[in-house]
Amino acid sequence: MIPSLPRVAEWHELALHAAAQPGLALLAPLGAVTAPIRKVPKFGWVVSDPELAREVHRDSEHFSIAADGASGHWWSQMLGDFAADRFEGPAHQQLRAGLGDLFSRPASEHLVETSTGVLLERLRTDLAAGRTVDIAEFGKVFTASAMVDIAGLPRETGTAAPYVEYFAAMERLADLGKGNWSTTRVPARNQRKGRALSALIGATVDQAYDSAGPDTVIGRCRELGLTLEQTRGFTVLLVVAGTVTLASTLGRLVALLHDTGDQHRLLGDAGLIPEAVREGLRVTSSMPVVGRGVVGDVELGGKHLRAGDRVKVMTWYIDNSVGRFDLDLGYVARTRQLWFGGGKHFCLGAALTHVQMTRFLEVLLAAGRPWEITRRRYRFNAFVPLYRTLDIRLR
User: Fold this and answer.
1) 187-209: per-residue pLDDT in tens?
2) Are 172 and 144 in contact (CB under 8 A)?
3) Domain 8-394, architecture per CATH
4) Residue 20 · residue 278 · CB < 8 Å
5) Where are the domains of the chain?
6) Is 160 in a helix, a strand, or coil?
7) DSSP single-letter state for residue 387
8) pLDDT tens by residue, 220-241
9) Membrane-spanning regions, if any (predicted)?
10) 372 forms bridges with which residues in the sheet?
11) What's this model's pTM, rounded to 2 decimal places?
C-alpha cells in the first residue's frame, strides 16, 4: 500500500526526507514495489512487510547487526574493532542486562525531571510569555542534557551553548553514515573523520571513568568490566543514538500536530498525549531504513538469502503504510513499536523516549493555547531527517 496523496503535513515530511538525502524521498514507492521482499541491485534484499521485518529482528542466528550492511558494522569502524564484540552474542546480552534498569520507566522519569526539569520550565515560561522558541534548538539541548547526565559525563551549567556544540559534533558523526545504501564499509578518509569526532564526543569520559556512580552508564560499564576505551566507545554510541533521532522526532511531532490541526484536540483532551507520542514515533520513524547482514543461508518470505547478502528493512514505509498521522488510529498490532527495532536489539532507551516526549508535550500544552509556526527550515545533507529551524509562538 502506498500512503494516500499528501496533505500539508505529509508534504513537509517528504520534503524533510528529500532535503536530508534525496533517496529517502523514494522510500514509499520503493517499499510498495518491493513488498513483501525483493532483491534490488546494489541495495540488497528489501523487506517491506512487518512480519518479515520482525523475523529479521528476531533471528540473530542468520541476521547480524555487526555484519556489512548493518549499523554495528559501521559503528565498529568509527569506534574501534573492540566494538564489534559488543553488538552480538553473550557480550552484547551481558551489557544490555547490566544497563537495563538505568532505562526503566521509573529511572527515566527521575532522569527527565532532574536533568531537564529546568529546561522544560524555561520552555513553559517563554511560551506563556509570548516569546518565539526555536523547537529545533530546544530539542538539541533537551536531548543532549539528558544523555550527558545518564552517561555520567560532566554537566555543563549556565548556558545552552555547550550542548548545542556537543549536539553538532554528534550530528557530524551521524552524517558520516549518509549514502551507505550498498555497503557499510567506510572509506579510510571517513574513518579518520569518524574516529576524530568520536574522540571529541567522548573526550570527558576519561575524567568520569573512575568516579562515575553505578546509576550512570559510565559507572555501570566500569562495574561490568569494560575498559576505559570500551566505555568511551559505548558512551559515544549511546549519546549519539539518544539525541539525534529524538531531536528529529520532537520537532517533527510539533510540526505534525500544527499542520494536521490535532494540537487543538490535545489542548481539549490531554488524555490523548499517549496517542500523540505513539503516532509521532510511528509516522516519523526517524531511522527510516534498518540494515542487517546475512551471516547464514536462510529462507525469508519464500526467498533464499545467502550468507554475505544484505537486508534493508523499510521501517518508515512499513510504519506509514497503515495510515496518516491519526490520533484515532489506536494500537496497530502489525506495526507495534517497529520504529524501536526488535529482538535483542530493541531500543534500550524506548521507555526514556516515551517519558521525554510525554513531558515535552505536557509543557507545550500547559498554557492552553495553540501554537503557530513562524519559520521552518529543513536540514540538508543529513543522515537523519530533521528541522534545522522550527520557530513557534503561542497564539
Assistant:
1) 999 999 999 999 999 999 999 99
2) no
3) Orthogonal Bundle (1.10)
4) no
5) 8-394
6) coil
7) E
8) 999 999 999 999 999 999 999 9
9) none
10) 393
11) 0.95
